[in-house]
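User: Hello, can you help with two protein structures?

Assistant: Certainly.
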Amino acid sequence: MQKILQGAVAAMKFGQSTHLRLILKAGFSYFAIVFAAGFGLGIGRVLWAVPRFGPRTAELMEMPLMLVAIVLAAFWVCRRFAVPPRIWPRLGTGLVALGLSLLAEVSVVLQLRGLSVAEYWASRDPVSGTVYIAMLGVFAAMPWLITSSRSELNSESNSP
């Protein structure tokens, strides 16, 4: 537990603003790629899959495709921005992307649908909604999960 806290403190110090800038740029790019994929898949889901299979099945059919988009985007962003294979830069990238995703959903999607946050969560299907929440966790963690070597991650996690 102490090592985790030390790593968190070291990650927050950001003596070099380049680390913070890197995480913010990588997180924004990761969000933009996955959001664009989700937007495109969402259009297809609403126009094609929902009328044929119903909302629950259509959303569940979309999830594996989103998982592929998440994995590919995480790989590309971490390589493109050379995000260090350490826990805090990788999780920071995912958490920035998650925050932007939730902000976009609350501000844009809910406005387009004319729902409040409470109405939106109440309208979610219990099955596909649960899978959606799990996918948000996967989305946030994926830049860290794709780290090529756990030993590399663990050995470098204590480095500032």
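That covers the first. Now for the second protein you mentioned:
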Amino acid sequence: MEQESVVMFFESLQRLMRMMRQSRPWEVDGLSITRVQRFILSTLTTQGPCTIGQLAERLDVRPSTMSTMVDRLELAHLVRRKTSPDDARVKIVELTDEGSAIVESVRSTIMRELADSFTQLTEAEQHTFIELVRKLSDILQKQHEEN
């Protein structure tokens, strides 16, 4: 029964994530943003400025591949590269105002859509769901850190 529950949870989570990805309006002002570009923009939003190496590590790609990805975002004026104040050889990638505005616009839309769905749960269901997701996230994080 335990294995069956894990499979049911995994399949439900995959379906939820797929539905959320498919409904995301990552086209703003005629600019289409790929899933990888979305990851980079979201990472810079949550983590702040990063080096190419740090971004490459998070996406598990070579720094040269990440550099090409950042080039495209830079051409679209969504990010900029700055020289590190600590080491002139290191470039720091940060969001531009335009990049921040796009991320905020898309996140606002996502939050509205999620709120519309989430409010269909009772307050008790919402609370239970949040607590269980937090607990599972904490368990997975601890396991990840131990490995």
